[in-house]
Design a protein that fits this description.
S-adenosyl-L-methionine-dependent methyltransferases; 6-stranded mixed β-sheet; Nucleotidyltransferase, domain 5
């Protein structure tokens, strides 16, 4: 049949996926080839280069992992799962059978194509696919590419998973007005969405989540904290533990036992794992490794509770920042396989409220996606491709969702879309699916008419459309049915992050994140935001590609404003060069930035330059990907964070010592998580996402301790300048000193670090100029002696060169010191110091400080 609404919804999950279709007003799960509701999100390429997806691929994956674990050498890999966790990245999955790398989106496309194959009675041209609420723009772009470029859909709309779940629940008999919390703990991601329902209209108030928290996290914890230690205590595994590759292979092979135990313990109190001897390799002593362990609910509970607690804490923070608690909720809706866990349900009951278990957590997202799809029109381009012009073409206009018991429907005939013989008169009858209401026959033409249809409460209302000629003969028509959902009306999707830009803060001089007005988190989409009062730092000459301005776009969570921009998620760098501008753009020119975000978070920008009366239009490309994070770089960043905390402690300026200890504990937790599997692709991303808030907290501590140091330095430099002016009776210096004295109280009152540093620099320059004039070469000699005394404590960039230059200067100072010659030597020595050791600026303008 030809459809005017999308009507199909897919839950593209980390572990399992599902497809639903609207049929006679109901969202129906379409069974897989094994007659299951869900399809394992697993892809296998066999030796005959045949693609297998689902249960057969999952079986192949388990065998492949067992073979790899048994042999402990580099085996061919041809089966892949959990690739949703690396969507939007440059991660490649190499298949030895096909001798090529597959991206996450290409593997996801194989799942989508398989789901599409379960629909055998019509071609699917358009689809709604659900994504986690916290998916970044890169990840959403990759999902769209998977659907359109690789899986062959002509149209794809994205919907946040919690919204889909709430839509399906909103039509259940248990739903009621008030606040709902959707608790979506999936195979690889966690989402929480706070929804307010008023007069049956659902509005997303706030969302939160973690893209690296899910069933996979539970499986890994059971392996790392129970199964792996159990084997390690009984067998000699030094060769495995000392080799990152072998350790990774061993961990992967144990995951299926952890997953099985996790599932079984959701329904019973204990589960025994007993493996055959040929599953494992021999240990370092030549003994057969075997696994015979009984896991109890309490044993596993102590391991997975902290993980569940992380998700619950996310929900509690979400509620708290909206002035709510568990007692404020009308329902707590569970979504995702791991929510079957009795441990989780007990924890939720104790800490938030008793969960609602009236819907199937495995299929609610897919069914909600289909319901939403029934409200979204197929695009004109796609519609034209599927239109059967031999049928009577009708055009209906109506509200797809309603809280009323009656709705107006407009209808007209599209004669220009029809071929062949057209009846002289056409009549239609609209009949509700239960046949409890009918419009009766009415004539329809190209001008159109209005029909008032009656709705059944609290459910999708399917209406059949019957067309007749003037003799009463039934005629084929398109569309032949439509659906109006009564009892739930979904507001627009919302932004999961603040969208902003990187700017240089006037207060601190640092590059920080600044959100764009009207593009704040939870803003309804589509949305338009604007940032003005922005100025360029350098001139851009026309026609020159090397002259450019850069506007880095980021998205960030709550609390992102004012944090280092690099600690947020980078979207795209907007580059506007001299080739794009009609004439010279002076330094310090104003610009106005307008950002438009559509329903799927695709972005377009307009940059207006008032000085040129010129607007540059930019489309943010949908082809950007996240790069793999280097393990050594990540280790270095963790080490830097540790060193920063040590410095803050040593300075003893921060009063809240407990806060420092809390940050240290968080950092220790991040480091342990990293060390467990330091080379895993998405583990590294997970670690970085956990590290970012820790870095922001450290930055906050450093900022709080920075002003006291700057204020002290400001006063000391002022007093030294005052002494120099008096000692050498420098009248020009005294006049400038008076100006500095007027400026200092303002800077101190505002605690403006950047302005204070500018003032310090100016006063130092003046002080050095006065000393230079009054002391001759004595100042340079003083520097040389100071360098000599502290030579071993300084971190020279080139120690050998520094020693040679310093010795040359000392010889000149002893024999016949010439001021200019000594100055050049001092300048070179400063250049051989790292930024942290450069402390002054020479009065003639040679900069020796960053």
């Amino acid at each position: 049949m030809s459809r005017t609404k999308i009507d199909y919804g897919i839950d593209l999950g980390t572990t399992n996926s599902a497809i639903s279709r609207m049929e006679q007003g109901e969202a129906v799960i379409k069974k897989t080839d094994t007659l299951a509701d869900t399809l394992p999100s697993c892809v296998n390429f066999n030796r005959k280069k045949v693609v297998r997806v689902g249960e057969s691929a999952l079986t192949a994956l388990k065998k492949e992992r067992r073979d790899a674990m048994h042999r402990m050498d580099s085996l061919e890999v041809n089966t892949f799962s959990e690739f949703k966790r690396t969507m939007g990245s440059d991660k490649g999955y190499y298949s030895s059978h096909l001798t090529k790398d597959f991206s996450s989106e290409e593997l996801s496309a194989e799942v989508l194509k398989t789901l599409k194959s379960f629909i055998t009675d019509e071609q699917i041209g358009a689809i709604v696919i659900t994504v986690p609420a916290k998916f970044t723009i890169n990840q959403k772009d990759a999902t769209l590419r998977a659907a359109i470029e690789h899986a062959g859909f002509n149209q794809c709309e994205l919907l946040q998973e919690p919204i889909a779940a709430s839509m399906a629940y909103g039509l259940s008999e248990d739903s009621e007005d008030g606040y709902w919390l959707v608790f979506d703990f999936g195979g690889g991601t966690f989402d929480a969405a706070l929804i307010k329902v008023e007069d049956q209209i659902m509005k997303v108030i706030d969302t939160e989540g973690d893209n690296y928290l899910g069933g996979k996290t539970l499986d890994e914890a059971i392996v790392d904290e129970i199964i792996f230690p159990y084997i390690s205590e009984r067998f000699n595994l030094n060769s495995i533990l000392g080799d990152d590759y072998k350790k990774s292979v061993f961990r992967d092979g144990l995951k299926e036992y952890a997953e099985e135990a996790k599932v079984q313990l959701s329904f019973k109190d204990s589960h025994n794992i007993l493996t055959d001897l040929e599953v494992f390799p021999k240990d370092d002593d030549g003994d057969d490794i075997e696994l015979d362990i009984t896991l109890t609910r309490d044993m596993v509970g102590s391991t997975i509770r902290p993980i569940f607690q992380k998700s619950i804490d996310i929900c509690k923070d979400l509620l708290e920042r909206n002035g709510l608690n568990g007692k404020s909720l009308n329902t707590l809706l569970l979504v995702g396989g791991p929510t079957h866990s009795s441990i989780l349900r007990e924890m939720l009951t104790e800490q938030i409220t008793k969960p609602n278990v009236s819907v199937d957590p495995m299929t609610v997202v897919s069914r909600g996606a289909a319901l939403f799809a029934s409200t979204v029109s197929i695009s004109d381009d796609v519609r034209e491709k599927t239109r059967d012009n031999t049928k009577i073409q009708l055009d209906f206009g109506y509200e797809t969702t309603s809280v009323e018991d009656e709705e107006f429907v407009t209808v007209k005939m599209l004669k220009e879309k029809m071929t062949g013989e057209i009846p002289e008169s056409v009549y239609i009858e609209i009949v509700r699916g239960d046949e409890g209401w009918s419009s009766g026959k009415l004539e329809v033409d190209g001008i159109g008419d209005v029909v008032e249809v009656k709705l059944m409460e609290g459910k999708p209302n399917a209406f059949k459309v019957l067309a007749y000629d003037d003799k009463g003969n039934l005629q084929a028509s398109e569309p032949s049915e439509f659906t109006i959902i009564q009892g739930a009306k979904v507001g627009s999707a919302t932004l999961p992050f603040f969208i902003g830009i990187e700017i240089k803060s006037k207060a601190s001089g640092r590059l920080v994140f600044k959100s764009i007005d009207d593009l704040e988190k939870n803003q309804s989409t589509p949305a338009i935001g604007m940032a003005d009062k922005l100025t360029t730092q350098k001139q851009v000459r026309p026609g020159l590609k090397d002259d450019f301005i850069k506007i880095p776009l980021y998205q960030g969570p709550y609390g992102a404003n004012g944090t280092p921009a690099i600690n947020n998620e980078h979207i795209y760098d907007v580059i506007i060069s001299g080739e794009d501008l009609p004439r010279m753009l002076p330094a310090g020119s104003n610009l106005e930035l307008t950002v438009r975000v559509d329903r799927s978070e695709r972005m377009t920008l307009s940059v207006y330059f008032p000085a040129l009366d010129h607007t540059e239009e930019i489309v943010v490309p949908n082809t950007t990907t996240q790069k793999e994070i280097g393990a050594n770089w990540l280790e270095s960043e963790i080490k830097k964070a540790r060193n920063a905390i040590v410095i803050v402690r040593q300075e003893d300026i921060v009063e809240d010592k407990d806060k420092i200890s809390e940050i240290e504990a968080e950092l220790d937790k991040v480091k342990r998580h990293f060390d467990q599997n330091r080379n895993d692709y998405d583990r590294k991303k997970d670690v970085l996402e956990s590290l970012k808030p820790v870095l922001n907290k450290i930055d906050e501590l450093q900022m709080s301790s920075e002003w006291p140091k700057v204020e002290q330095e400001l006063k000391e430099v002022f007093y030294r300048l005052e002494e120099a002016c008096e000692e050498f009776n420098n009248q020009n210096g005294k006049a400038l000193l008076s100006q500095f004295k007027t400026q200092m109280p303002v800077v101190i009152r505002e605690k403006d670090v950047s302005l204070a540093q500018d003032l310090i620099s100016s006063m130092r320059s003046l002080n050095l100029a006065i000393l230079d004039e009054g002391l001759g070469a004595q100042m340079e000699v003083g520097y040389l002696n100071s360098f000599n005394d502290e030579f071993e404590t300084l971190d020279w960039l080139d120690r050998e060169r520094a020693r040679m230059v310093l010795n040359q200067g000392l010889r000149l100072a002893v024999n016949s010191p010439v001021k200019e010659e000594l100055r050049q030597i001092v300048i070179e020595l400063f250049r051989l110091l790292p930024e942290a050791d450069k402390t002054i600026v020479i009065g003639d303008g040679n900069e020796l400080i960053g």
